[in-house]
Predict the 3D structure of the following.
Amino acid sequence: MTPFKSINPATGREATSFEEHTPAQVEAILADMRNAQRCWRNFRLDERAECLRRVADNLAERAQDYARLITAEMGKPIGESLAEITRCANVCRFYADHGPAMLAPETPEGAPQGARIVHEPLGIVLAVMPWNFPFWQVLRAAAPALLAGNAFLCKHAPSVTGCSLALEEALSGVGMSDGLYRALVVRDERVAAVVEDPRVRAVSLTGSRRAGAAVAEAAGRAVKKCVLELGGSDPFIVLADADLDLAVHTAVGARFYNAGQTCISAKRFLVDRQVVREFEERLTRSVGLLKMGDPLRPETRIGPMARADLREALDRQVRGSLDMGARMILEGGPVPGEGFFYRPAVLAGVRPGMPVFEEEVFGPVASVTSVDGPGEALRLANQTRYGLGASVWTRDLALGAKLAGNIEAGNVAVNTLLKSDPRLPFGGVKDSGYGRELGRSGLLEFVNAKVLRLP
Ligand code: NDP
């Protein structure tokens, strides 16, 4: 079997390589996990919560090492990698503090005498995870699943195998049963067989629509619960009366954080034609100031993209859109030389039908579309196969709330940056997937809500 290569995106050079698990190793992992889960399900909730607190402590203690690993494997600026580890520790603490109450037995009002609902674990949850937030995407799914009494098996993206193994280390020696959390190092063509294994009871995937459809198909064939978080093409609507300082400031972070490789990034800027020129000028000025360079330097705001092929795909989307009439008002594109850098770009005159409007744009490119008032903004916001997030910028709060109510998405914000929050459910509609992560909804995805009717 060819080893998995970890390539440093800032240099394009191979940093490490990892051997794939053999079929015998996969079998041993699943056997160990089943035993571990049978033991773990009998831990009291407060004991499970205590283990999650220790995971949070491990993450905090080793934050610098883990952050450097994230940056080395997928290229995000070191400050963002550190922030990612902090968020991971926080999500563990959040579920340790609040999860036990969320899982408490319930007696619904008016239920028959003696009936109550208890929340039992399902077994082994398989997670197929992407490279863009290599710690956060995993822990936001793993923390609630583990607290609920499940085991967690993570098949990570090959380019971040080092992070995947580091996560296994961070979750070991914390008092959970041995082998409860494992990294699975296999190619994607071997995932379906793991989904079908009777010991695996549910699947969670974060990634592209293509990957989600493939894994959901395998889960469907095996009649297993599946949660899909598949990214989006989030509209960022700027109405004529918006506070432009705030809108532009937020737009830069919302689009260019993590070099634009974020599912909940603002991806389509729909701006009222009365203010579109001013918005474009201010956005172009602010984006032009973002410092691109070595992601290990603390002042860097834009690191390389994660992989060479992702940069090529982005470039194709941009060139395809320019051919169809979009204008590049901030000159960007692939930077020749070492690494997978892509200079941030702003496109104006973007219309439906262009690749940057129709497809998920996963990189440092902002696309501005001029719209004729709130009605057209809403129509274009919903004119996408995706439905993950959206934001609306206006001083008319009643209008903002009305638009928010009519946007087809899982998360909509008015005059504030959209980001996931452990306290609130996160997920999408349409091709952005189904099911929820985070909040109480995320915790209840991987439980058997069992009804007990006792005399
Ligand atoms: P993928 O969706 O292909 O990868 C995500 C995960 O799914 C990886 O672990 C991958 O493993 C796995 N996977 C892919 N196909 C299958 C399959 N058929 N069976 C089982 N597992 C599978 O993303 P890419 O890295 O190729 O990125 C491509 C595009 O996807 C991006 O440009 C972006 O648009 C979107 N994306 C969105 C994300 C989000 O958070 N919204 C995250 C990542 C990507 P392997 O790499 O081995 O195939």
In short: The chain has 15 helices and 19 strands.
